[in-house]
Every structure is written in C-alpha cells, then in structure tokens.
Design goal:
Elements lengths: L4 E7 L2 E5 L11 H8 L10 E5 L6 E6 L5 E2 L3 H13 L7 E6 L2 E10 L2 E11 L19 E5 L2 E9 L3 E6 L8 H9 L9 E9 L2 E8 L3 E3 L3 H13 L6 E6 L2 E7 L4 E6 L2 E7 L2 H9 L2
Amino acid sequence: MERNGFIKSHALGNDYLVVDPKALSFALTARNIRLICDRHRGIGSDGILAPAPSGKADFGLRIYNPDGSEAEKSGNGLRIFARYLYDHGLTAKTRFTVDTPGGIVEVALRLRDKQVERITVEMGTATFRSERIPVAGPPRDVVDEVIDLNGQQLTITAVSMGNPHCVVFVPDLGRVNLLRLGPQLERHALFPHRTNVQFAQVQARNRVAARIWERGAGETLASGSSACAVAAAAVRKALVDRTLTVVMDGGELDVSVSSDWAIRMTGPATEVYAGRLSESFVTLLEAGE
C-alpha cells in the first residue's frame, strides 16, 4: 500500500477502510480514527481495518469503530479484509486464518472466473453465558430476560460472538424506534463493555429479518457478527432451523449454526476504490499525536 494510502470497501453497505499502519506517517489514535471516519470532514466509513502481526494465524487484524474504540470482531470487516488480502496479492490461498481480538477465524474464498464471489467465515462459537459476553449479575445463560428501558419492558437474549450482542425479537420491525432504543440498549448498565444491538423478526423457519445498532457506530445497513448473533439466538429459542438467511437493510447473509454452536457465515464483499490522504489532511492528523 502506498504511503498514507487506503482501500475503501463495503459488505452489504457496511463500509470500512483498510489501512496499513506501517504505511502511515501518523498513529491510529482514537482522535485520528474519528477524523478519518467522519462522513463530512474525513473519508467516511463505519470503521477501519488495520493489518496486524500475528504469531498464531496467517494474518492478524485490528478493527476500529468510527468513535475511535476497538472492536473484538466484525463479520463484514473480516470478509472485506479477506478479499483485500487476495485481490492485492498478499495471499494466493483461498483458505487462511485471521487473528482478531475476538479470536482466530477461518476464511474460505469462493472464486468465479478468478474473481472473489463470496466469502465464508467460521465465526467461532456463540455463547449465552453472562460472564463471557459480558452481562452484569450472577453467572447464567442470558435468554429471554425481561429488562426495563425507561419504563418500556423488553425481552432480550444476549450472545457473544467474541463481541457482545443484545438480541430483541419483535413481531414487527417497522414499529421499532431503533434510533431511540439502540443507544439506550448499547449503554445499558447490564453491559459493562457496551453491546451491539439487534431487533429481529422471524419470517420463516429459514429466514429472519434484522435491524442493527452497532456499538460505537450507530445504525448500520448490515453487520456480520450481528447476523450470526441473531441466528444463534433464534436457534436457541427454537424459532428457526439451524441453516437460515438473515435479511438486513443492506442485504442478506447465509448463516449456519452447528449443534455445538459453531457459527458459519457466507456473503459478499466489494472493493469501491483506492486512494491516498492529501498532505493537508495528513498534517492535521500528525498534529494530533
């Protein structure tokens, strides 16, 4: 990657920038991440993907939210990163592993005419255990718990995919005020590390629709780890079969949930453009170190 360069990509409308810290003349501080991701004063994105060293996997990855915080895992980000590695000649393999703060994942690329068509990510094992998500209170499975949200009663199921999720099943997604409920759930006292939030509506035994409020990013068109959390929660509650499609505003992901709660996700990723930060913007970023 060229000096202070970047790649802009999206996965079902969830857009990320891939930047190589070794090619930057400034540090990826929380301030600089916020500036770069700002949709009015920067490039604009739902986050930044930064290659990182790893002694445990073929590649390492750090994932930053647009508010400057770090995410443990991102399914959409992993698909984007996997395609970046293959398209830019950093690997010739169609199967490899990626080390994230939320665990090591396996990636498989499906090619058509030598082009990446779809990417499958082994997202790890879902857990409902409160101490692993984490959720405050005594150790337990957090399934169908009723919480009070400023006078409104919500029934939640909490899941960890290596990062925290709070899933709420509703009869009609169209009646959900995500902009009000999303941030309240994200920062609810139950979740000491905050949480991603999903409202979900079961449409059939093999199909669930979802709207996403992503921790540190807000409403997003799609989220890979959120889709996996929704699928796991729906299977746990016996609402769906173990192979299903999760439908989000940005598109669809195919998810399978094994009997031991290992989650596999398949979907596309698209590179949009490559660019380089201007000297004046770089000067602004360097001044904040």
